[in-house]
C-alpha cells in the first residue's frame, strides 16, 4: 500500500499515481477486498470503501467523468468485478444513501450489454467504448472475459436467468471466433473487426482466470445437463490454463507471453494476481478442482514469496517467480498485488464460500441500475444539468451549483470575467465541465483541444451550432458568416475581403494639448467609418459629423445588455441597424440604375456592390453586411488603444518605438512599410486581443457527433497527452515585446481565432493598429496613460475598457 496515496491529503480516492491506469486501481480495490475476506483484518476497509465509491461516476456505473473519454469496457469491468466480490464475500455495505455493491455490478452489466455489437464479427464487445480511441476496431478477450465473468456471477447471486443467457451468448461467440481455441482451450488476445477470423495469438493469465471463474459460477448456478456441460468447460479451461505453469516441475505461474523475454509492460506485471485470485475462487464453486488447483497455487506462492527481498525496504517482490529465491530487480503495484494474491489463495479452504441472495447475501441490488448510461456514446454526458463537474473535484451539490451560476453573473456585471475564468482553470484544471444558462458545457483553455476544434475537426465535428448559433440567429439570420456552416459559410466568406482603409480624420480628432480623452471612443468611430466605407461605399463619418442615423447605429453596435439574452433593447437595436443598412442598399441600387454610382464615390472595392451584382435577396445582403460591420466595429474598434496605452506604461518600450518610427521618416507609411517595422509589430503582438487583453471573452462550439478533444480525461485531466510547458514562461502576465524575438507560438496564441474560420478582419485590424500607433508616437512628443491601476476591462459583446481608454498626448 506504499504505492497508493488516494486517501492522503491532496490525493484522489480510488486512483493510483501515474503511470498506473484507472483499471489497475479497480483491481487493487478487489485485492483489498480479498485481503479482508481471507484475513478478517479491517485495516484497509474504510480506504477500500472510499475508493470504490469515489470512482462510481454520476450514474453509479463506474463511468466517472474524468475517465470516460479514455475508458474501455475492460477498465469498467475490473471495477465491477471488485464490486461483485464485495457482494459475494459480504464486505461491509456502504451507507444506505450510497450505491450498493450488487447494484454497482448490475449497472456495469447493463451498460455493457447495450454495447454488444452484432454488426462486426457477429457480436462481442469492442475493446474501447468510444469511437476515437485506439482499439475501437479491436474486440479483445479481456473485455469479453470481464462481461462473461460479471454475467455468470450475477446469475449465480441473483438467480436471474437473463444474466446466464448473456454468459452463454458470450461463451458461444468466443468459440465461434476461435478466440477460445476449441481444441486446446487456449484463450487468444483478440481480433480486429477488419479480419474477424485471424486472432492475435498472445495468451495472458488474466483472460484464462476470468473465464475459468465465470465458467465455475455457471456450473454452480446450473443444474442437470446444463451443469454437466459447464463442468466440462471448466475442465477444458483448466487444461488450457496449464500453459502458464513452468519451471522444473511445471507448477510455477508465469506470464509466458512476455516474462521470459523481459517485455512485460506495467499492466502485464499485475496479471498473475487475477489468475491466482480466480483459480482459488473456482475451488469454492467447482469443488472437484481443488486438488488440482491447490498444488499449483502452493508452489507458486512459495516461489513468489522467495522473490520478496528487493527494493529500499527489502520486501519488494519480483515478477519472475521461476527465479526462486532471487529478486529480479522489478517492483511495483502489480508485483506486490500478485504475490499477495497467490499467498492468500492458499488459505481458500479456510474461508466461507461466496454467498448469494438466497444463502445470506446482504447487498441490495437494482436490476435497472446504470440506465442513464445505457447506450450512451457521449463521454461528456456525465456533465448533466444538475452538476458542475471537474477532473479534480467531487460533484458539487445544488447549493454550490447555484453559487457557481451567481458567481458567473456577478463576474460579468463587475467586469472581471477574465479573472473569473482564470480562477476556474486554476481550481479545476485546463478542461472542466460547467453549466451556463441551463446548458452543459465543456470549458477548456488547453491548446491542443483548441487546435483540434478549430482545425482538424472544425468542419465535421464542430460546425456552428448550439448557443453560438441560437444567439447569432436572433441578430444576424441563418446565412451570415457567423451563423452558417459548410457551403453557405464558404460562399459568405468568399465575398468578404476587407481592405486597408486610411482615415486622415482620426488624428485630427485627437486632442494634442495634453487633456485626457477617451481613445476607445474615437477608435470605435474610426472603425465604424472605415468598415461602413468599404462595406457600404458610404462612410458613417462618425469622426467628423455623423448623421443622426449614423450616430444611432454607432451606439447600437455596442448594446448595453447581455447580448446572449433576448431583450427588447437588443431587438430594437437590431431593427434600427438593419434599416440603416437597408437604406444604403436601396440608395446604391437606385444610383446604379441611373448610371451615377461610379461618379459619386470611389468604389474600387465595395462589399455591397459585389453582393448586389450577385443578385442575392435583400435580406441576405442585409445579413452579410450587418455581420461584417458588427465584426470589425465590435471586435477591432479598441485594438489600437492597447497599442498606445500599454506601451506608455513602460518608458523603455516607448523609447525603442520612437527610435524605430523616426528611422522611417514618413508621416503616412505604406502597409508594406508598417509590416517591416519589427519592434512595432512585436508591441502589437504583446497587447490586447493579441495576448494580454483578449477581445473575445469566449469562443463557443458545439460537437455535432461523437468526437474527442485530446485532453481533459484521466487522472488530473492529462490523458491521453501530457500538458506542455507554458510557452510564455514565468513572465506570461507581463507586457514584453522582446519575447517575440525568440518566441514562435502556435496554438497558444490565437488572437484572431484560428483554422479555416480565422478572423477575416485580421489584416485590417493589424494595419489599423500599426498605423495608429505609428502616427501617435510620431506626431505627439508625450503620450501617457491616464487610467489609474492599468486597464480595467468589461465584457459586453467583446472585451473593452470599462472606463474608456483614457490617454493624453502633447505635441
UniProtKB/TrEMBL annotation:
Record key words, sorted: Glycoprotein, Glycosidase, Hydrolase, Iron, Membrane, Metal-binding, Signal
Record keyword Thylakoid present: no
Location in or out of the cell: Endomembrane system
Record-listed E.C. numbers: 3.2.1.101
A Pfam family that the UniProt record links to this protein: p450
GO cellular component terms, A-Z: endomembrane system
Matching SUPFAM superfamilies: Cytochrome P450, Six-hairpin glycosidases
GO molecular function terms listed in the Swiss-Prot or TrEMBL record: heme binding; iron ion binding; mannan endo-1,6-alpha-mannosidase activity; monooxygenase activity; oxidoreductase activity, acting on paired donors, with incorporation or reduction of molecular oxygen
PANTHER family: MANNAN ENDO-1,6-ALPHA-MANNOSIDASE DCW1
Family stated for the protein in its record: Belongs to the glycosyl hydrolase 76 family.
UniProt protein name: mannan endo-1,6-alpha-mannosidase
Organism: Immersiella caudata
